[in-house]
Amino acid sequence: MNLLEIKQQIFDNRKMLFALIIIFFLAISIRSNLVRFEGNYLFEPDAYYHARLVQDIVTIGHINPIDPNVYYFVEGGMPHSTPELQHYIMAGMYLLLSLGVYSKATLAFTIQIAPILFGALISLGMYFLGKEIFNSKKIGLATGFLTAISPAFAYRTMAGAEGNDSLGFIWMVIGFVFLIRAIKTKDLDKKELINSGLAGIFFGLMAITWRANILIPLILIPSAMVMLLFISGNAKKEKKITKSEPFNFLVKIVISLGLYTIISTLYGMISEGYASVWFVSLAGSIAGVARTTPEIVLIGISIIALVFIGICFFFYNAKKDIKQLAPTIAIAILYIGLIAMLMIFVIEPDFFYSGEGRQSIGSLVGEESLGNSSFSIKYNSLIILPIIGLFVFPISLYFFKKKDSHTQILFWFWAIITLFMAWYKLKFTFFFGLGLVAGAALTCYIVLELLKKYELKGIEGKTIILTTIFLLILGISGADMYLTQFAPFANSSPYWIDTMDWMQENTDVNAKFFNWWGDGHQLAFVTERKFSVDNRNASGFGNRAYAEFNITTDVNRGYEIVTKEIGAEYIILPSDNFYSGPTFEFYVQDSVDNKYTQKYYDFQTRILDCVKTEQGMNCQGNNISQEQYDGLNDSWKQLPSDFYNGQTPIYYYAGEQQLIMLGQTYNNTNLAKIYFNSIETKDLYEEVYSNNGMKIFRVK
User: Fold this and answer.
1) Which of 327, 345, 475, 598 is the most exposed place for a label (fewest CB within 10 A)?
2) Is 404 helix (H, G, I), strand (E, B) or coil?
3) 541: enclosing H helix or E strand
4) How many angstroms separate the CA atoms of 107 and 53, rounded?
5) Both 217 and 329 in a single domain?
């Protein structure tokens, strides 16, 4: 193709190219909210950790095998995580932006904008996938547009978010584009073989990039089985089975899964501790939910697959009247799966933790909690579209018979599987962000087919079109409203900015801090000091030590923890710790049994931010005279300041910026005694920093 022909192609497709440019920049604009904040602070804690790994690559040429900044108390040091493809891609992006001159601000900016770019590219990739599946540029545009505005998906691909998951989805979407191109035809020629191979390679790239590559077989295997059944009922019988459409279909699936398996296995062999072999991960995940062994799961899946393939080829070889039952059975399987999911929703309100329940500390972490309660804010009105698609699509396979409609089954399984995952775990709501798009694309397809089939051009057609457009407009506004409520880590709590500035200006570069795990990633990247734990939770001992240090009532025990067991020089104590007694108790006891936490509810802790006024102090709407406020000193007291309901002891503490009210249980903790400079702890710790409830103490 010469230059003149290329120009002609661009001119002929100018409207479509313009629409794709609009989708690309719409995706970027929705995801760019956090860029407006100063400081290039990142959003998700994990993004800070990955930024540290990229920093290693651009400064020393490789990732340091031992973490120099976190888990300093661990003998021999804590190993860093395995290098991933995203780290090298981001390092390359940084080098392009920095022109070889090191700048931490430029590095942070690179990490900040990378997910935006990845999210926008995925939106374009979903256009091509939708176009291939439905043979329609209109459906492709709808798919790309929905990807750009899907709130739950945009949330995890916005500025400052973690980059490996968004990059991982790029490979997955491209892999599915090539696979659909291969399986939508009956043939097994060079073109189909190349497309199948490219699909496997891109699936392998996802395995190298992101551990959630297990989504590929989770979606592909059940959809391929139903596709095979559907094809077997419609395929023309050939003299040789090896020339048949079902056989060709299986070969394409095997090639793509085979290459994916080889790449993921090789990567698993060279990446210590990373079990990236997909069928091992898949069997382990299913075994955990089914409460059986991975071996039994693998054997069970293999038997089911072989039997199902045998049934498919039975229908392929059967007489016409029996053969025609195959597509009907395929449709029935889809409805059976849908009904089964709905029944599980009703019967098992907490499926992943049914039986034993939430017994472990990990089950309480925010992302492990149930996801269904967040559906209204994460998906808003757009949730209607995939629900319609899941219910109506199976029967559309019967009404809208097309030669390659089997490819649409991939989107149905993508939607239902990720919906199930998101319903039961908050962290999977991101996965359904794209699953929602897949289900919504099915609905858009059905609407367009109805308009064509029944020539709905009057009031009925206009009503359907206007309703769909209205839902999409609500989706855009919903995504914008949802994302603008977030701020980067430090900007969402501005006192952290001053705190980290103080650390960098007033402590040695090798200063050792004792901290809670939730702040570790951010602190280690921004300040480059040493911290006891981070969000990897790689040391249960480190987490328990900080928890026990806070809630023990034995001052000597607390001092022993910080000096002998951890070896810290500074302790970070936010006033928010006074809300965390039950959580600390769970970590100390290594159990989530509420019998350990009842004592913390003798009085509900209250922490009010205060501002000085002409009349005295205004503490979140409560006006207190200066004289009365000054009478509530900030030194630890053994005798209560008041009695709630005339019986429950209450302890008031007034600082420069906060009024803190504690019950007796919290008041007796090591945390309270240190925080309020008790006589017992003054000789052990020195308060060196205080700002809006954030305090840092030096260990004497």
Assistant:
1) 598
2) coil
3) helix 540-551
4) 11
5) no
